[in-house]
Write a structure and sequence with these properties.
The chain is mainly alpha-helical. Helices cover 67% and strands 0% of the residues.
């Protein structure tokens, strides 16, 4: 099933991957790591509580996987 996601949800998931990669690459010192972890937490909440999910019921797990794949395929935004 094809999913059409809101732009803000896709952007948040893309940003989540970018921040996660920065943490994995250990960009910056301890203060930067704390900032990145906080940003990652906020993005996690933003993605997981987005109103989009309330409209998909039983199909939400498949839609979440499709969102992750879409965000990975699109890569970081400019």
């Amino acid at each position: 099933m094809a999913h059409t996601f809101p732009d803000d949800l896709v952007a948040a998931q893309r940003d989540w991957y970018a921040v996660y990669q920065q943490l994995a690459d250990r960009v910056g010192g301890p203060a930067q790591t704390t900032t990145l972890r906080r940003r990652l937490n906020r993005l996690s909440v933003q993605v997981s509580t987005h109103p989009y999910w309330t409209t998909h019921g039983a199909q939400a797990p498949a839609a979440r996987i499709a969102l992750r794949q879409l965000a990975r395929d699109e890569g970081p935004h400019s």
